[in-house]
Every structure is written in structure tokens, then in C-alpha cells.
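Sequence only, no structure available. Ideas?
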Amino acid sequence: MSDQDFNPLLQLQGLPIFSLVKPEHIQSAVKGAIDHSMHVVKTVVKEHENNPTWDNVIAPIEEADDKLSKIWSVVSHLNSVCNTEELRVAHDSCLPMMAEYSTFIGQYKPLCDVLKKIYKSDEYTLLTTAQQKSIENSLRDFRLSGIDLPEDQQKRYAEITAELSQLQSNFANNVLDATQGYTLHVTNYDDVKGLPSSQIKMAENEAKKRELEGLVFTLDIPSYLPFMTYVENRALREELYKAYVTRASDQGPNAGKWDNQENIDKILKLRHELAQLLGFESYAHLSLATKMAKDPADVINFLEDLARKSKPQGKAEIAELQEYAQKLGLEGELEPWDVAFFSQKLCKERYDYDPQELRSYFGVEKVVAGLFTCAERLYNVTFRPRFGVDVWHEDVRCYDIYDRFSSKIGTFYMDLYAREGKRGGAWMDECMSRRYRSDGSLQLPIAYLVCNFTPPMNGKESQLTHDEVVTLFHEFGHGLNQLLTRIDIADVSGINGVPWDAVELPSQFNENFAWQEEVLNFLSSHYKTHEPLPKEKLDALIKAKNFESAMAMLRQLEFALFDFRLHLEYDPQKGSRVYEILNEVKDLVAVTPQYAQARFPDSFTHIFAGGYAAGYYSYKWAEVLAADAFGRFEEEGIFNAQAGKDFRDYILAVGGAIDPMKGFISFRGRKPQVDALLRQSGITVPASEA
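Reply:
I predicted one. C-alpha cells follow.
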């Protein structure tokens, strides 16, 4: 094979060769894998329709799908972490094919019929729990893909899913372009008085990259958040805030340039039509068909109950902040661009706590080592760096994870720093699933762990805020769910097949360890003295943990209620009613000052470009599970061996093969209690709301 013909996407036996993947490889590899999968499905179904079994039908299909899954994982991952115009075009050109294939599989009646035969056969009772769950999920997904629809409606279903796929990609691209399409250029250093020196250096580097004098600030979180928190110049805070909250909209400095409103309207309209096609009252009802929560009323009641219990404390917190700001000389009312600034000052005064000051204790190497130590003590595993691995950027590190017998059980990549062409935020994603290949060998799970921390500068190690440490623990929790799985059926292995409102349980649970004194003692180390976080700073950090926690709770509940009601109440006659519903939700839950021209929905990628549509409530739902699960460790000891083993056995290792509520009850000995979250968040519920 000549170099010209070589396609690294077709050689995915071991770890992917990321650096060799070029945009021109993508379409042919994806198309080839889709064609192969379709051929396998049609062939095995036809050959074995009279006597279908797991081995002669499902296993070969799983093998073919695994090949496609691995190729698409690499492509979509590179599109998120190394975005270029050429790569984006190549990625987007595959979306219609992927949507078409998904629709084909979801509506291929002969496959559904053979799965029903297996389901009803004697052999079904002999299958493993994971195999049975995989078949049950497939039959459910057939129903949700319109298998029972007449042909013309099936065709419409296919059109809608293809169009939604493209619209969601357009939405994400607009947000990325709008985020990168604005900068604040400052030449007078006095204008950014109050900003920590590490942020000044970062802004200087940004300016140099753009061949400008002075400082450049962007809308990426590592640049934006410290600016809003520390810069004393109120007018500049206002300018940057307005640019951030109007991204990809009809307002702000780039008004209309990447406006997502039309995408939102079309997405909501098509989702509603899709739900109705499938016999659901709304897209919210359709969303719950695959989740732990089963009734929209349960979700609304859950969110409104938390809001009702949190709002009195939220009101008190904002009133206190207003009073404090006026004491410091603020004239008039507190504005949205003042909240982070005065909150930080109040927190520092009350607890002698400043997140930026703690950076010097949280060098990346020490934090990552501490992160691993934590998992090693909890789950009896070890981590080893893997060298000489091909990666997509020089900052990326690769690690293997081993069990107590020193057998390798998985691999993961860490890509921790913000850079141009990389999607904002933090996430964990699957590169490969644990499963048995057709040759009998065991394919081990591989995960990507991606963050957007401040990159190392001038040869110095990157230092994290404690918030960033918590983010790393969160994403690593997802990673452990993927890597510690013992399930070897791809559909329900690792994070696969886990209901969306349970998938955040391992991640939010893992965050708790970043707040424990015992962990912070081995997680922190001053970059000069190598001493851990001093006792007084550690106490201040823990005391400050729940500072303004009711305000934070209400903000998340606002997002969740807005998302759920938007999809639950959609009416084609009335249109999307985005801001009408948002304002009603704000009236119910918001306590912080508002900016009338803010267009937060236009950059709400979780629900308009990610998988959280009518599912953003999952964060809070899973937070309740996580808070209550951690309660057992608080009772028995945070590194209690039995509790760690049980959490691994009942939650992390079972993937999507076991009902998560059953797993939780096995671990905790009872159903979850919502009060655990309020207690952990330091929210005191008035007697009238209890």
C-alpha cells in the first residue's frame, strides 16, 4: 500500500494514530465503515432469520459497529480538540451519512424481527444480564426509531434526524466561532488593575500570539472568568460580560453574525415533530423514555421543590452581596457584571479565601498524582504513564490503568489545556469500549479526558484553581465509569447504556474527594516550598465551599427548568417561546440581577448541540444520588475499603447493564434522599418549606 493510499482510520487495532489523520481520510473511512456495517446487518439477518442467536446475528453486527464507532470517535474527537476549517467540513460531510445509517438501523424491520425472536426464545434465558439488557435496549430503541411507523412517516423520521444532526452541528460551530470571534484588547495595564499576575501573563501571551501590544482577553473561560472576578474597572467588566452573554445571537458586539435563534427555532420544531411522530406528547416525554425519571411531572416537581427550598437562602445571599457592594462604594444597584467581582471580595473578607492565591499549591503534576492516589486507595487500581504514544497535541498525556493483579484494564488520554481550535468546557468521551472481539481477544476500554485549563507558560508548570481541580475530579469520575467496567458487551459497557440522568453520578460523586482534608494534604504542594496547603488555608477553602451555594443551586435549576419546560410546552402554533419561558422560569427561581439583552440560550450547547435536550435536569438528579452515595463514605470513612469496593461493584463496574436505581439501593441500602444534596450544599431549608 502506498503512503497515498494509507488511511490511519482504517488501522484502528491498537491506539489510534491521531497525528496521521487528515481531513481527506475521513469521508472515505466513515462511508466504508457504514457500508460494511449495513452489509453485515443485511447478510446475517437474511442468513439466520429462521434460527437467530446471539452468536450468529448480534455478535457479528456488534463487531462491525465497533469498527464504525472507533472511526467516528476519532473523527468527532479531533473535530472538538483540533478544529480547523478543513476538518470541520470533512466532519460535517459525514453527519448526513451517520444520521442515515442510524435511521436505517433503527427502522430495519428484519433486524427487529430477529431480535424479537431471540428475546422470545429459550436461549434468551441463558444469556448474561448484559446481553439481555443489550437486546431489551435495542428493542426499545427500535420503537423510538419509528419501527412501527408507516413507510411515509419512517421517511419523514429519517429526514428529521438528518436535519437535526446538521442543525445541532451548525449551532455548536456558531458558538465556537462567536467565542473566538471576539477579543478585548487592552494597552493600558491600569485598566485591568486587580487581575492576578498569572492572568496578566496569559493575556500578554495571547496578545503576542496575535502580534499585538499589551493584553488580549478572550471569551474562553480561563480568560473570561478571572477578568469578571478580579478586574476593578467596572466599564470593562460590563463590556466583556455583554460580549459573553450575547454570543451567537442578535445582540452584542457581533450581533447577527453567528445568530443561533433560527437554529433554535428549527431544532425545537423538528424535535417536537419527531416526538409526535413516535406517539409522544412532547419531546420531554420522548426524552424520559430512556431515563430514570419516567414522568415529566416528577422532573418539574423535583426541580421546583429544590428551587422552593433554596430560594429563601438565595435571596438572603444576594441581599447580603448588594449591601456589601454598597459598603465598598458601589452606587446604585448591583449589576450582573458585578456579581463575581463583589462575591470574590466578600468571600475573601469572610474566609480569607482567594481562589487565585491557591494556584501556587495546585501544580498540575501534583494534582494528577493525587487524583490517581485517590482512585488507587478507593478501588485498588494503579496508574502508569504510557510513553511513545501518538497523540493529537504535544500537551496530551496517556496512561494505563491496572487492577490489583497488575493486569491492564484500560487506557486514557488527558488533554488539559485551553488552545485555539479546541471546544470550550470539560468532558470525558469514549475512544473504545470494553468488549470481546470476534477473534476471542478482549478489547480494553479507552477514554478521552478533556479540560480547558490555563496552559503552561514560559516553561513553567500550569497551576490550577481549586475549582479546576474539582472539574478534573468530575471528569475523571466519568473516566472511571468507562475504565473500571467489567461488562464486555459494547452497548452496555462503561458509560454506554447508562440512563442520562444517572450518568453524572460517578463524576459528581468523585468531586467530593477534592474537598476532603485527607486528600488535599497529598493533592497540594507549594511550587517553591513543596509544603501542602497550610491548615488555615485548607480550613478557609472548605468553609468557603458553600459560599453563595443557594445562588449557584438556583442558577442550575434555572437552566434545568428552562430546558425541560421548553421541550415539554412546545406548541407549533405558538413557536419556540424561548424568552417567554425563560422569563417565567427566572421569575420563579432567579435571585441575581439580570441583563435584559442577555441571550444565554443562543450558546446553550448542552441542549441545542449536546445530548442534554430535556435532560439538563440530570445534573441535579444525579447530584442527589452522588451526595447521598458519598454520605456512606462520610459515615464509614472516606477511604473505607468495603465502601470503595461496593461503589465500584454496584455503580462503576456494571455500566448500563443494571438498572442504576437497583445499583444505588444495593450500594446504599435504601432509595436516595433529596435532603442529602441540600445538606451537602449548606442550604438550610426554612421550616415552612421543609
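The two ends are 71 Å apart (CA to CA).
Hope that gets you unstuck.
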